[in-house]
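Protocol step 4 of 6: structure prediction from sequence.
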Amino acid sequence: MSKAAAKNTALASDLTFEKAMQELDGIVKKLESGQGSLDDAIENYEKGAQLRAFCEEKLKAAELRISQIQSHADGKITATKFADTKEK
């Protein structure tokens, strides 16, 4: 892939899960419509794969964070900070 193509498929640093899902939905609709050139379809597919991986990573992080929430016998709920749970 050329540097220009790589730049076009790079994900924005401020991308949120919700924005990524919206963009992924749009890409899926474009691909399903069958309109556009083969090159456009390949670029869209590549971007879709990146967005899917981004969303999967966000979901795994959320799942890990949720798993760190603990309830105790006395009814108190505590949470371990997500940053504290990463492997060192």
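Step 5 (inspection) to follow. The first strand starts at residue 69 and ends at 71.
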